[in-house]
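Deliverable D5.2: sample structural annotation.
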Amino acid sequence: MSKAEMSTDSRQHLLAILDVARSLESTVRELARAADAPQAAPVHPPRATATAPAAGTTMDLTDSQRRICERVINVFETGRVEGDYGAISIYHDGPGGIRQITYGRSQTTEYGNLPELVRMYVDALGVLSSALRPYLGKVGRPEFPLVDDSTFKDLLRRAGDDDPVMRDTQDVFFDRRYFQPALRWARENGFAFALSMLVIYDSFIHSGSILGFLRNRFPERPPARGGDEKTWISQYVHVRHEWLTNHPNPDVRPSNYRTRDLAREIAAGNWDLAILPVMANGTPVHDVPREAMALMRMASAATDGGGDASFGGGEVGEWSELEPPAYVAALALTFGETPAQLADRILNHPNITLATAHSSGVNDDATARRNIIDTAAGQPARRSSYGTAPGGTVRLDPNMLRGLLALADQYSFHVSELCGGSHSATSRHYRGVTADFNILNGQHVSAAHPDQAAFRARCQNLGATEVLGPGNTGHATHIHAAWPIPH
């Protein structure tokens, strides 16, 4: 569409984006100055540093911790950080194993609490309330199954996707029906850590409660009865993972990604949910300010008319790395960790191996591992000075570093080059935004590698705008992923 043809609605969306971007401008400038400033080598305490709450301490979440809990569950349930309010899935997990609808931001079920949600929406006089009113006497009743009622499902989708009243109703509903009961249970049983709340909330959302028969499978008592909080949470997640993995209903077994991810956060000592992002089924969850999330939604509407613009999922239209929209620059600076901190995590990540030599055999201080060591020390990374390599130094891009950490949550890999080595004269490697991978999940990269296509797609989902590999000239034995060049 030409500028002359742009609709009034599109212009209004773009103006709204500009207004919000301007409101973030001073914060972005400060963060940019902080990112550009020389950084001292990080002095990190061990990751498992959260201290035990004082006796009598109760669960008291910060706004940030609550957002992380809600967003992780949103991703677990719908694959989107903000939740997919119109999402519908069908599972064989109704009464007696019958098929049923699960719906909404955090997925409530047809024979569970969906009747309450529909009633709340109808009473709130939403756009589609009148159309849904005739279903009030049917939804949730086994004699009136709605799993194959295309009209009912379409109304739910449209209400969730298009009506702000349904979104507001769901926010109130999921808080009242699931979050508050989970918080009450946590407090009554003496739990205080934010990660404990995430574990408990996930059990309430996915299983309806803290399951008594699972509690009988491990010995630790809850804190209110003299037990150790971290031990109880660790043991509960372990037995719940075993239960999900071996569940008699095959539809339930794949959901063990939830307990897998929770166990990883426990192992990392992330009890205060301060180590970000939290990876939820492969999607990074950050404490992005709500204003920035709103900005992303508006950007999505203005550029491609829809989709979820949350980081790690959805698309926000096409743009050039030379002129990224304001929300991209703003959001890139809101995720908290410095390049030095990200590099420190990469150095210690069990799924990431960094090359200590170049394939050319040239010895220098620009290997992938040396690049990350320098970055972790707050220093620029060195480039090679042989072949077409320009020498000198460059700071590694934090978006690329975040991408490596996100990839490592799903894959193990060997990074053969970052900004070192010799590449084509205009290669993005020399700009500090590119990584080459030559071993993936223990196998050398080739066209026959079973995971190379999915790995390349994941790189693109994580923001890489130049992804090459088997099938592309010069990339038969490695994957090349380059992120946008920063200004």
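Annotation notes: Residues 63-267 form one domain. The mean pLDDT is 82.
The annotation will be released with the project's public dataset once the embargo ends.
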